[in-house]
Amino acid sequence: MKVILASKNPHKLTELSVILSQHGFKIALESEYGLDIDVDETGTTFEENSLLKAEAVMKASGLPVLADDSGLMVDALDGAPGVYSARYGHKSSDGERTAFLLENMKDVPDDKRTAKFVCVITCLWPDGRKIVARGECPGVITREVHGENGFGYDPVFYLPELGMTYAELPSEQKNAISHRARALQDFCRKYQQMQEK
Fold this sequence. Notes:
The protein has 197 residues and is an alpha/beta fold. Helices cover 32% and strands 23% of the residues. The chain has a 7-stranded mixed beta sheet with strand order 2-1-3-4-5-6-7.
């Protein structure tokens, strides 16, 4: 089944394609369909923003659309940056946002640096069908950057059980345990149930 990814992010396309292709999905960025839609992410939850993106691209294309909204929630910062992860501190690059996060957490003790990555996936079909799936991955914010893989806050998101940050994990391993992977597993389970009805 062909589905448009409501995103301009090739990293997301790569991560999503690996898992969804196993379930018969052919997924492509909106640009491959000649679309360039900027959605005003006015939602206050990942669910709301994911739905806004999916609705906008589906209305423009008339095709099934999958959108995700994801971000980092830090306990010591009352859940920030949350839905504002991609524009945290009005910084323009991943490195600047990560540095801003570490600066805001410089006085937070090691035992209070817990956080989680959250991903919500919304898939809409023109016939009205809808799936919303959520995945979370708990971790700890480091005091400095570690690793070259991944993107965003990956170099400071540490997984104690693995002894590595997201950015130190091989991509296959990250794709198996990440918040996006867990949301996709939830999505695929719900999609199977939909197919069986």
